[in-house]
Amino acid sequence: YDAALSAEGNVKVDGGKIIAKSVYGCGIYGKDGVDIRNGAEVTAKSTNSNGIYTKSAISISNGATVEAEGYWPAVFGSTGVTITNSTVKATSSDDVAIFSRADAIII
């Protein structure tokens, strides 16, 4: 999959700092899900696609900080997006900032 950071399984960021930028693909793509947690600092940007995309679910939790930018939804979890006790700044230049075909839960 065309992305700055791509996995055929899950992308898990447990603490630490990641900057993923792409022009044509996603900033971050995890086929089976994206899990960002425990104070992780993630910047994911795409000029022509999604900042963060998965065919599964996205979970952002436990004090994580995420900045996502995309042409399409900046944060796109097909089966769900859950944001818990974290900070997310999401912007899209031509669509909604956060999108899911299922539930989008922000606690």
Structure explained in plain terms:
The chain has 107 residues and is mainly beta. It has no helices and 14 strands. It has strands spanning 3-7, 10-14, 17-22, 26-30, 33-37, 41-46, 52-54, 57-61, 65-70, 75-77, 80-84, 87-92, 98-99, 104-106. The strands form three sheets. The protein has a five-stranded parallel β-sheet with strand order 1-4-7-10-13, with no helix packed on it. A five-stranded parallel β-sheet has the order 2-5-8-11-14, with no helix packed on it. The radius of gyration is 12 Å and the shape is globular. It starts with a strand and ends with a strand. The model has no long low-confidence stretch (mean pLDDT 97).
**Cα radius of gyration in angstroms:** 12 Å
Weakly predicted, low-confidence segments: none
Please state the oligomeric state of the protein chains shown.
single chain
Give the helix proportion (percent range).
Answer: under 10%
Calculate the terminal CA-CA distance, rounded to whole Å.
Answer: 31 Å
User: Tell me, what's the shape?
Assistant: globular
Which secondary structure elements does this structure contain, and how are they paired or packed?
Blueprint: E1 3-7, E2 10-14, E3 17-22, E4 26-30, E5 33-37, E6 41-46, E7 52-54, E8 57-61, E9 65-70, E10 75-77, E11 80-84, E12 87-92, E13 98-99, E14 104-106
Parallel strand pairs: 1-4, 2-5, 3-6, 4-7, 5-8, 6-9, 7-10, 8-11, 9-12, 10-13, 11-14
In short:
The chain is mainly β. Helix content is 0%, strand content 61%. The protein has strands spanning 3-7, 10-14, 17-22, 26-30, 33-37, 41-46, 52-54, 57-61, 65-70, 75-77, 80-84, 87-92, 98-99, 104-106.
